[in-house]
C-alpha cells in the first residue's frame, strides 16, 4: 500500500486524511479509520483498474467505504441519492448505490440497497444516452465486462426490447453484446407487433437491428410462424421488418389463401404488406387456378386483397377473373385468378379490383372497393363458390360483341356450373339499330292490344343491375323505380331507355351443340323506342358469337301473328305474318333504310326477308 497524506493517532484508533493506493485501486478520504489490515471511511472516493498500466475501469465518489485485506473484500455505499457509479472503461454509469469488491477475482457487484431498479446510462457519444433499468450489475475487471441483471426492457428508437432472462452484457467502449432469444414490441406506443426468439444488436438509443420470429394469427386464431430475417430502424426512427416466405413453407393467410413471398412491416401500422403470390383453395376439376402476383396490405381478420391492374400492352402476365367463350372450340370456361386465357377468347363478363372470401356464401368475391361501399355502383362483380364449383358474374355481360351498327347491351347475372359445364344468363338487354319508328309503334300497338299477356318483370336482379348502368343519375333512377312501384310504369319511357328494343327479362342458355345462346322461356319486352309495352311474350332469341361478326335472331309470337328479325353480315332482315306491318318496310325509301360506312363502322341496311327463312329458324329450334 502507498499512502499520501496525514495520520492522526488517538487513544483508541488511527485516523487519516489521505490518498491510498493499493492492489490497482485508489481511495481518497479525509476521515479514514485504520484497523489491523482493514480501514473504513464515512466519505471516500474509490477507483480501480485491472492492472497497473491500465486506465481506471470503475469509479465512485462520496461513499461509506470499508476494505478488509484479510477477507480480500471491499464494500461501498453511496451517501447521496444523486450520486452515481461509473464504469469508465465500458463507458456506462449507474445510479445503483452499493458496490461489493471481490479483490482476488477482480469483480465488482453493484446494486441498490433498497432493492429497486436503477438506471444504467451509456456515456459514449455515439450512444446518444442509451439507457435501461437493472436490478444489479457485475463488472469483471478482466476482460472489462459489464453484466446487468434483471433488465426488464430496453427502449430503442420507437420499440422495446426484452432481454432473455433480463441479461445484458457490455464490452469496453459501451459495445453491447448481441441479445439472443429476446422479445421485441414494435412500436412500444401502439404495440401492434410482437416478436420472439429474437437476435438483436443495439447500436445507439436510436438504432438497432436483428432478426426474430413472429406469429401471424389468422381469423380462426391459428398461428402461422414467420421469420423476419431483417428488422431495423429507418431514417425516421421507425422500426421496419422483412420476412420471406418460401412456397415449400406451406404458409396460409387463412384457410382460403395460400401465400409465399415477402412480408413487410412498419411498426406504426397494424397491417403488414404482402408482396408475393397468392393461391385460392378449391377442388373443382374444371377450374385451373394459378399462383398470382400481388402486393397489398392484409388484415388477417378481414382479408381483402388488391388485385394487380392489367397491363394493356401484354396479356401473358395478366390474371383473368370471369366467364369466357373460346370460339375455336365453341366452349364456355371460367377463369378465376389464372393467366390461361387466349387473346382470341371472348370475355362474357369479368371483374377486377379486390378479392376476398365470403364464408356465408362459400365464395371468393372479386369487385371494386367502391362497389363494396355502395352496391348501387354499376361495377362488375364475380364470385366463385369453391364448395359447389359455381361461377357467378353480375354486371355488364357481353353476349354479342361484334355487331357492327347494331348496338347490343346486356346486364344481369351469368351463372356457370363447372360440374356439368352449363351456363345460364338472366339479363336485361337492349338492341339499338336503325329501323322504322312507325314499325316500332305498330309492334307496340299489336302487343299491347293482346290483353291476355302477362306483365314483364321489372323487379328482378338483372333489371336492377341494368338500370344502374343505363339510368346513371341516382335520383332519376330512384324516381323511375318509384313510378314502377306506384303506377306499374312511368308515364313516359326515360330517355336513356329509348332504344329500338328493350328486353326487360330474358333467360339465355349456352348451347354447345348450336354454338349459340338460346333463350329459355318467354321474353320480357319493355319498349320499342318511345312506345311502352312491358309484356311477357312467347318467343325465341338466339345470339351466335362468330369470329368476324355475331349474328342475332329474334322471334316474337305475342298473338296469332309473329315478328321475326335476323341480323347477319350487317343486314337486318324482318318478316311478319301481319302483312300490313311487313308491307310497311317497303314504304321506307331504300336510302332511309341504310347507313353508309363511316368512322370504321360498316355499312348497314334493313329490309324484308321471306317466310321460308323463318321456317328454317323454327325448325332449327324444333318449333315447326
Summarize the structure.
The protein is mainly beta.
Walk me through the structure.
By secondary structure, the protein is mainly β. The chain has a 17-stranded mixed sheet that branches. A 12-stranded antiparallel sheet has the order 1-2-3-4-5-6-9-10-13-14-17-18, with no helix packed on it. Strands 15, 16, 19, 20, 21, 22, 23, 24, 25, 26 and 27 form an 11-stranded antiparallel sheet that branches. Strand 21 and strand 22 (223-233) form a beta hairpin. 37% of the residues are buried. The chain has 6 helices and 47 strands.
- Give me the number of helical elements: 6
Contiguous low-pLDDT stretches (5 residues minimum) are none
Strand content: over 45%
Structural class: mainly beta
Observed structural traits:
624 residues, 47 strands, 50% strand, single chain, mainly beta, 6 helices
Topology:
Elements lengths: L1 E8 L4 E9 L2 E11 L2 E11 L9 E11 L4 E6 L6 E3 L4 E3 L3 E5 L4 E5 L6 E5 L8 E4 L1 E5 L4 E5 L4 E3 L2 E4 L5 E4 L3 E2 L2 E8 L6 E12 L2 E11 L5 E11 L5 E7 L5 E4 L2 E10 L5 E9 L11 E7 L5 E3 L13 E7 L4 E8 L7 E5 L3 E5 L4 E5 L1 H5 L7 E5 L4 E7 L10 E11 L4 E11 L4 H12 L12 H10 L3 H14 L13 E11 L4 E4 L3 E6 L2 E7 L1 E6 L6 E6 L6 E6 L2 E6 L2 H8 L7 E2 L8 E5 L2 H10 L4
Parallel strand pairs: 45-47
Antiparallel strand pairs: 1-2, 2-3, 3-4, 4-5, 5-6, 6-9, 7-8, 8-11, 9-10, 10-13, 11-12, 13-14, 14-17, 15-16, 16-19, 17-18, 19-20, 20-21, 21-22, 22-23, 23-25, 24-25, 25-26, 26-27, 28-32, 29-30, 29-31, 32-33, 33-34, 34-35, 35-36, 36-37, 37-38, 38-39, 38-40, 39-42, 40-41, 42-43, 43-44, 44-45, ...
